[in-house]
Design goal:
about 10% strand
């Protein structure tokens, strides 16, 4: 909306306000970004403007304005200068000054140098005139409000913020005030009607007074006599009631004692059932762990076989490649040699006998070769297995040697060795140059319980390579030293000195957070829980505070029991994630729990006794595996020797057959042409090599089949175990549910009985208390009745024969007769008639006075009738106007909500997101729907922290054009945003500020890079001297 007042904040000056002695800030552009480190006093400017323009102290980190006076000072001054559009061409300059002291505050307002106000009412009128509305959270967004709005999940609270920010809530409150005022008018008219009726009754009383006065005197005398008798009858009757009530109270006290004992018995039974339920849960968890261990062992075996399968496949591929190359070579030789020449008919006949004998020998040779090939395959498989066992032995030896070296380094642990010789040389030079540097951080860490050493090192990550310093010049020298010694892995953190920021109490606050979270965790889970901060809090305070700022170590949990970690994360007691001693990292990723093993370096900086024990256990396990592999290797070597002996026997037989075949072939060769050239020999050798390769391939294929069979068996075993686990789990679950149901039913029955017992006890207690009060009242009443009776009978005890009811009946009869007259206004004494005094008058004078009173009452009644008629018409007009304003307010609500929907969608589209606002004005709920991708659901809870904060800021900016205020302040709105979303959010603020006529002040501890120079000015505050 347009800033019709033309108001612009020129500058602000703070004297002795919060952390500032004398701060002056000038505002020259439409958007001003106040940046600076934590503790530089940025928020003090926002709080000062809030104090000046009517924001409550409770909404700004405080309880009262006087606590904003700087410590040690007697007063504080806030002074602002505003430029406002005036009636003339020149704008008016308004200076507002507010002086705070512990006892009071003073205000001084000047316009163009002339005093124009000095009271809070004057200031309120000026604020109203300039339309400065910093009470609106949309115009005055503090850190706490930003966190609540940007992370809000409650749809009603978002809608409530929408109403408050758009002033619809104020309109509703005004309408409610009007309705209450209308009700007050109606009540006044009802009172006037009642007064009219009273006047009429008074008039009637005046008219009838004289007629019935004598009858009343007679009846009152008789009633007075009967009241004495009635008083003594009541005294005797109340004494009897008191005795009966005491007997009844004694009976109730006995019953209360019996029910109290029954309550104690029920509580003991409930404790017993709770213990049984806990035992059942532990038993179920134990069975699940054992089944999972068994499944993990089989999966490990399956993994080894899968790796063997890959190796064999590679060997098969190599064999196929070699065979293919040999086939190509044989084909080339056959092409060179060509087909053999045809022999003559005589040669064929002469060669038939030789070929028949050769064929018989070849058959015998083939049979022997087949047996020999089978033995060769067995030998090849055995040798391949021996080779693999040998490789496994060598691998285990290498791993064992590596573990031995790590163990030796543990025993001779020197933390500086962890960083390597380059870092060691760099640290030595840093010490030689006497630089004010703390680090590396890993050398400054001391873990209380060494069990958590690996987990702590995993949590710290790359921060253990960090160095802390307080000067940028030192940073440049430090980087030069690292470059000189070729140190590539390091982190440098430039911070303020610990002595300067000790008032921030970072460590103290973090310890409180850590203790609070651990207390909440202990109430949810019985497993012992600690945090990284609790383990290293005795280390260097500067290092610990830096890790709190960087990693939030007060919210990183350390826990042995995984199940307890799952429970604590689901309960959201405050932990970011958990680490186990292994270490395993358990955390939420999106809406799912993630449990993964952290990568652990072979060299460890923070070494624990448990790590050494675990490493020794691993080395012993490797030695046992080596022993088993050696035994297997010896068995395979013996088997290979037996196969070799059988092969030698077949070779001898093959040699004899070969000799006989050779003789026949020599005879055949003499009758054939010369074919023993070099190509023929090479051809035969290639054929033999190809046959050998085929045999090797067959052997490897057999081994591959065995591995596939083992994999299939392992997979089938896994399926079988999973099915068994499923069946067993179903049986256990059914049995567990049955037992749980049984114990729960018993628990519910006892609980119900306890509740009924509690209700009965409470009822008895109330009855006893009521009876005690009743008895006390009876005691007092008996004493009172006796005293009254004594007073009525002139201190004489009267024995009454009649019952009080009988006497009361006679009194009622006389009282009824008297009341028939006394209930009318005419029965009142003169002093009780409105406008009459108690002066005793004679009959004639009293008549004259009564006639004047009658005339006066008639006039008064006529006046009230006229007043009622006039006001009734006015009430009808007010009710009609109220209904019309309610209708217009509802129309305005829908128009504003539709505008905000369009604005929000346009703002989200600038980030290429899809967003919408879903209003339900009947239920007063507002849902923010955001899609960052086409596949996302649109649920705000599924977004990252930066995306959720960006969408929240878009919601705030969508409402900006709908309200009128010349000044808007945002304090640390970007606290949950990453760099990308923060940059996009700042651009949106700048673009929105261009479109609306308002002044914007942004407070952020982060820098603002490349702001638009035409509308934005960046002011960096330096930390004040404290």
């Amino acid at each position: 909306m347009r800033n019709e007042t033309g108001c612009f904040l020129q500058n602000i000056q703070l004297v002795n306000f919060m952390c500032h002695d004398n701060l002056y800030v000038a505002f020259t552009k439409k958007v001003t970004c106040l940046v600076g480190n934590n503790g530089s006093g940025k928020s003090a400017i926002m709080i000062a403007l809030g104090v000046l323009f009517g924001v409550r102290a409770t909404a700004m980190r405080g309880h009262s304005y006087k606590q904003y006076i700087k410590t040690g000072e007697d007063y504080s001054v806030i002074r602002v200068e505003l430029k406002v559009k005036g009636e003339s061409l020149q704008p008016d300059v308004i200076v507002i000054e507010k002086r705070l002291s512990p006892e009071s505050s003073r205000i001084r307002i000047t316009t163009n140098g002339e005093a124009s106000g000095k009271t809070q009412d004057d200031l309120n009128a000026l604020i109203e005139q300039l339309r400065i509305n910093l009470r609106n959270p949309l115009c005055f967004l503090t850190q706490d409000q930003a966190k609540k709005i940007l992370k809000a999940h409650n749809l009603k609270s978002i809608y409530s913020f929408f109403k408050s920010a758009t002033d619809i809530e104020n309109i509703e409150n005004n309408q409610i005030h009007d309705q209450l005022l209308l009700q007050e008018i109606k009540k006044s008219l009802e009172a006037a009607t009642t007064r009219q009726a009273n006047k009429e009754k008074t008039l009637e009383a005046v008219a009838n007074r004289l007629e019935i006065k004598d009858a009343i005197i007679s009846a009152e005398e008789s009633i007075r006599r009967l009241k004495v008798e009635y008083a003594w009858g009541r005294a005797h009757q109340e004494e009897k009631r008191r005795i009966a009530a005491e007997r009844e109270r004694e009976h109730m006290l006995n019953e209360y004692a019996s029910k109290s004992q029954e309550k104690k018995n029920n509580l003991a039974k409930l404790e017993e059932i709770t213990g049984k339920l806990s035992v059942l849960a532990q038993k179920k968890n134990s069975l699940q762990v054992r089944r999972q261990d068994r499944l993990d062992q089989i999966k490990e075996t399956l993994g080894k076989n899968e790796r063997r399968k890959v190796e064999i496949l590679k060997e098969l591929e190599q064999s196929e490649y070699d065979i293919e190359q040999m086939k190509k070579k044989v084909s080339r030789i056959e092409q060179i040699l060509g087909r053999p020449a045809e022999t003559s008919e005589d040669q064929k006949k002469s060669e038939e006998s030789l070929e028949a004998a050769l064929k018989e020998l070849n058959n015998e040779k083939n049979q022997n070769e087949k047996e020999q090939a089978q033995l060769a395959v067995q030998k090849a498989q055995t040798e391949l297995t021996i080779s693999k066992v040998h490789k496994e032995i060598e691998s285990l030896e290498q791993s064992s040697q590596k573990k031995q070296l790590i163990l030796q380094s543990y025993k001779q642990q020197s933390p500086i060795k962890f960083y390597g010789p380059a870092m060691e040389a760099a640290i030595a030079e840093i010490k030689a140059q006497n630089l004010e540097v703390t680090g590396p951080i890993g050398l400054e860490i001391h873990v209380k319980d060494k069990k958590w050493s690996r987990a702590t090192e995993s949590a710290l990550g790359s921060c253990i390579f960090g160095f802390i310093l307080h000067c940028k010049n030192v940073k440049a020298r430090l980087e030069g030293i690292f470059a000189k010694h070729k140190v590539h892995r390091y982190q440098i953190y430039v911070t303020t000195p610990h002595a300067i920021r000790k008032d921030d109490r970072i460590l103290e606050k973090a310890l409180k957070v850590s203790q609070s979270i651990m207390q909440q965790a202990s109430s949810v889970s019985s497993s012992p829980v600690t945090t990284v901060l609790a383990q290293i809090q005795d280390s260097n305070p500067l290092v610990v505070e830096q890790l709190i700022i960087l990693l939030g170590i007060e919210k990183i949990g350390l826990l042995d029991n995984r199940q307890s970690a799952y429970t604590l994360l689901q309960k959201k007691v405050g932990f970011e994630f958990f680490l186990t001693p292994a270490p395993d990292r358990i955390q939420y990723i999106g809406t799912s729990l993630s449990d993964m093993r952290c990568t652990v370096r072979e060299k460890q900086l923070l070494v624990s006794q448990e790590s050494e024990t675990e490493l020794l256990h691993e080395i012993e396990k490797m030695k046992e595996q080596q022993k088993e592999l050696f035994q297997r290797k010896n068995t395979l070597i013996a088997s290979s020797g037996e196969i070799q002996s059988a092969l030698a026997s077949h070779h001898e037989k093959q040699a004899l057959i070969q000799d006989r075949i050779a003789e026949l072939e020599e005879e055949i060769k003499r009758r054939e042409t010369m074919q023993t050239d070099v190509l023929e020999i090479e051809y035969k050798n290639s054929i033999q090599m190809m046959d050998a390769a085929e045999k090797q391939k067959v052997s490897v294929a057999e081994t591959y089949k065995e591995v596939l069979h083992e994999i299939a068996a392992s997979q089938a075993e896994i399926v079988r175990i999973l099915e068994e686990n499923k069946c067993a789990q179903e049986r256990e679950e059914a049995l567990h549910k049955k037992e749980i149901k049984q114990y729960t039913l018993e628990h519910e029955n006892i609980t119900q009985a306890s509740q009924e017992n509690e209700a009965l006890l409470a009822s008895l207690q109330r009855r006893i208390d009521k009876m005690n009060s009743h008895l006390e009242m009876l005691h007092k009443e008996c004493a009172c009745l006796r005293d009254t009776a004594m007073d009525l009978s002139s201190q004489h005890i009267l024995h009454v024969e009649r019952e009080p009811n009988e006497i009361e009946g006679e009194i009622i009869s006389l009282t009824a007769k008297s009341y028939a007259y006394s209930s009318q206004p005419a029965l009142h004494e003169m002093s009780q008639i409105e406008g009459m005094d108690s002066t005793i008058l004679d009959e004639e004078e009293e008549r004259r006075v009564l006639l004047e009173k009658k005339k006066e009452l008639e006039c008064e009644i006529d006046r009230i009738n006229m007043l009622l008629q006039e006001n009734q018409e006015e009430i009808e007009e007010i009710e009609k106007g109220t209904l019309e304003r309610v209708r217009k307010r509802e129309d305005l609500t829908y128009k504003i909500s539709n505008s905000s929907i369009r604005n929000f969608s346009d703002l989200m589209s600038m980030r290429e997101y899809s967003g919408s606002l879903e209003f339900d004005h009947q239920k007063e709920v507002l849902d923010i729907r955001v899609k960052v991708t086409e596949a996302s659901k649109g649920d705000k809870n599924s977004l990252s922290g930066g995306e959720r904060s960006f969408s929240g800021l878009c919601f705030l900016l969508s409402l900006w054009p709908l309200i009128t205020s010349p000044l808007r302040i945002l304090d640390e709105f970007d606290v949950f945003m990453d760099a990308l979303n923060r940059k996009a959010a700042l651009n949106l603020i700048f673009e929105t500020a261009r479109r609306i006529d308002t002044q914007v002040i942004i407070i952020t501890p982060l820098g603002v890079s490349n702001p638009p120079a035409d509308i934005c000015d960046v002011i960096t505050l330096k930390p004040p001297v404290r």
